[in-house]
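By convention, the token line describes the chain's fold. To illustrate:
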Amino acid sequence: MATSLIEATVTTSTVLAAGVPTTVHDAGAGRPLVLLHGSGPGVSAWANWSGVLPDLATDHRVVAPDLAGFGDSVAAPGTRYDMKLWVAQLIGLLDALGLATATLVGNSFGGGLALAATLRHPDRFDGLVLMGTPAGEFAMTEGLRAGWYYEPDLDEMARILRLFPHDPSVVTSAMVRQRYESSARPGAQDAFRRLMPEPGPDGTVVRGVPEASLRTITTPALVLHGREDAVIPVALGYRLLECLPHAELHVFGGCGHWVHVERPGRFVELVRGFARGLA
């Protein structure tokens, strides 16, 4: 891990959840936040959240798992990756850690998982933070298309990662190397490719949680979206605002898909304020 401060405050362990040996980063104490990472090539909980996890952990217990098929959470051969498995893994993790309820903070695919889990287990989650989250149907973007076809290559990893932020200079060589090494694990792309259809020549429709289902979710939600998000268009943030009965939306100008990387201070401030309002 990056610094001695982070090493002193974050515990990394393996927890069995829904039969999946799940790598979990755990820090802090207080109202629990569960951070759910996105799905791009080479993603992991640590790669996704290490920049903000220590700050959130100053007044929360923060739990960041590698979801099945990503990072170090390697499922058994032949595992069928789908939302049913990821929801079961999330609930199993809460049970294993003794967390009756938690606030979910989901990035992209992680936001979609947060919505799906809340639909199935509304009593387990008291709030949702949805960042760059797909909702309803939308046309596949270049960022998603490039991720689907990715094969381990350092230069291609750098090209894909630069599609995510508005300012590509936030993509460092260390970030590229870390994500590339994770993506080179055998089977690392299997889970990502289960999330969406193979891109077609005439355009491909990606489907998130249907709008009709979103309208039934009464859990309070904070929606965060970059105005220049080229991976999950900002129109989907407005769709969540329209469909979720108890939602508020914050749009960040000059910001792409990685609000937590491009605006870390404001991200932490908004998440803390939202969580305080749930108490």
